[in-house]
Amino acid sequence: MWFSHLLAAALLLHSIAAEGFVRATTDKDAGYPEQKMYWTSTDIRWKLSKGGYSRMKQEEILDAMTRSFKRWSEAPCHRVNFVYGGLTDERIATFNRKDLESNENSVMFIEKGWNNREYFGAIAITSQYYNAFNGEIVGSDIEFNAEDYTFASSGKLTEFDPTRTPMDLENTAVHEIGHLLGLAHSLTPAATMYGQANPNETIKRDLHIDDILGVCAIYGDDAVLNTPKSGGCSLAPDAGSSHGGGFAALLLAILLARRFLLKSRA
User: CA dihedral defined by 189, 191, 61, 54, rounded to 10 degrees?
Assistant: First the structure.
């Protein structure tokens, strides 16, 4: 009970300020009404790429990511649990619209080829796959830019590389997991979900009250998840789909992706 009163007070104070959390929304330019994004599943399974990261042992990465997911799952009003599902062969963010069961929420490091993509300079990217009709998230992948940045889980690097900017893995991971959950970049500079990070920064491993209020707005006991806005959809079935049924074809036709980038202040 005391936390409910504290949270209500924090919400009131937060509403007075000009800054605050921002919920991720679907891309309205894709031709569908804008919707707030969220998971309906209470258990989100994630996997770690077998590709690993050459500067860290796989168990170090797993420990750091597990701690990072735990930061969010321990939020007082958070009802979503994260379940580690083992290793995956995925090396780059991908999504199969025709076989949803084959998709995995993967965490991976890109050590070569990052700068051949349109995300030049980003520390990490979270790709969200969602139903454009109602904002339901159906998959998410996190990619770390290990071509331009070096990552460590100890808060400092054990070796210096003048060609890469040093970043704390957990500081970055906690931010990206916030995107996975449905938060966009916060307007509060001290928040974990702020859109920029300093080299070797570790303070944002821990959630700011702004981050907690954000995740509570989506998954708290009083949260109201989106329902589709009024209006129909006249999409034709996907001719290449092997799935039967009009609703299944319609659902597959409106699964879209959106990406969130974290940038360095350096």
Answer: -10
pLDDT at 80: 85
Residues 6 or more apart whose Cβ sits within 8 Å of residue 114 = 120, 145, 146, 147, 148
d(CA 258, CA 26): 7
Mean pLDDT of the chain: 79
First and final C-alpha spacing in the chain: 43
Give the residue numbers spanning the domain of 136. Answer: 21-264
Cα separation values, 207 from 30, 99, 105, 152, Å: 32, 35, 22, 19
Q: Is residue 5 part of a domain?
A: no
CATH code for the domain in which residue 141 is found: 3.40.390.10
pLDDT attached to residue 10: 44
As for how many domains the chain has, the answer is: 1
pTM: 0.80
In this predicted structure, the answer to whether residue 157 has a pLDDT above a threshold of 60 is no
Cα–Cα distance for residue pair 89/51, rounded to 1 Å: 7
* Residue 63 maps to a domain: yes
Does residue 3 lie within any of the structural domains? Answer: no
Distance, in Å, from the CA atom of 84 to the CA atom of 46, rounded to the nearest integer, reads 5
